[in-house]
Amino acid sequence: MANTEAALKDAMSSIDGALGVALVDYGSGMALGTLGGSPSFDLTVAAAGNTDVVRAKLRTMEMLGIQDSIEDILITLGSQYHLIRLLTGRGGNGLFLYLALDAQRANLAMARHQLKRIEKELEV
Amino acid sequence: MSADGGIPAALPAAAAPPGDPALDTLDRLAAERATGALHGRGGALYLADGVVVHAESHAVPDVGCRLTVGGRLPAECWEEAVARGGPGHGAGRFLVEHGRLTAGELELCHLSALFDAAYFVLCPLDRTQRGPQRFLREARHWFGPVRPVPVPLLRRETARRARLLERAWPRPEVDTSPVVPVAGRAARETAARGRGAVLAAADGQRTPLQIACTLGRSAFTTLLDVRRLAAAGLVRTPERGAPAAPAPPRPGTAAAPDITLLYRIRDALEAL
Predict the structure, then answer these.
(1) What is the pTM assigned to this prediction?
(2) Interface predicted TM-score (ipTM) of this complex, two decimals
(3) CB contact under 8 A, A35 and B2
(4) Which residue of A has its CA nearest to B165?
(5) Which of A26, A28, B73, B140 sits a CA distance of 20 to 30 A from A91?
(6) DSSP H helical segments within chain B, as ranges?
(7) Which domains does chain A have, with CATH numbers?
């Protein structure tokens, strides 16, 4: 029975190449928890910005009439992967997990799998 | 930046209006590590040892409303927690201990409700109202602490939210009046959640905050959705017969012209 802090710690310690992780409310763009990051990589800025990414995608799906939900969004940079996983639990509506990975050290398939596990542990 | 998985230290600066007496009081109480409730007409902020542990505002859905309206908990479960956990200042803890909610769910629901209520306590929609001023020492809330929020973080987040509303649509008129979908234009919005649900609940009778209470969702998020819907010309206030008239941002709120805002103003003018 994990709380936010435990879930984020789990993500940072168990996912290879993790640079930072945040749990974000995409209604307000507020990060409800962050771990990792650096002075040059502000996770609260990332949380607010990626909220716009999620909102834009949800709006696009609405406009296209796609009756489905987003499981995750992958953004591939030259040196990093950014993974956004929307939470689907009863209390998780409107939340997403945001994970930044070092592309050199990360195993993308494993990271997606681990993020799914962490969502389950968060039990929201 | 939080190094411990706690609430992040939010964006820098985000200065609240200088000299706001409520914020000065809040800073002083934090410095004193005070315990008690700071009351205003809009609601109250509860502090324990100088950090904010709870916020309530009569205008916004509280934790109970959020949990029961959406069907997450039967109303009896919530009432039982309040009746049995409340006297010991632990209604929240009661829900977890009795297996009604997981710890993570309680934490996220409470935190979201706390920031939501705190926004409307510190920034009342009725701008003639002052922020909270009366401090009742040693008052504790029956919900009990879940995850405390430092005062500087609460101030920064509140200021960030105010800017977000301003950027979405710089006309606060839609905040307090009933809103109604603009005929024809709003028909495309069909989603059962989020903006679509807000639009469906906009019946020309309910104000944005009443819509939030009807849906059991965040009042701030609902307000932001309504401002965005107004900016897109999808809702209007019934009295005016047109979307809230666009206006430039208040002087001093924007350093440089925002081109997307100008586009939205043009679109709204064309929609009139």
Answers:
(1) 0.84
(2) 0.86
(3) yes
(4) A28
(5) B140
(6) 21-31, 63-69, 75-85, 91-97, 103-122, 151-168, 173-176, 194-201, 208-215, 219-231, 259-271
(7) 4-121 (3.30.450.30)
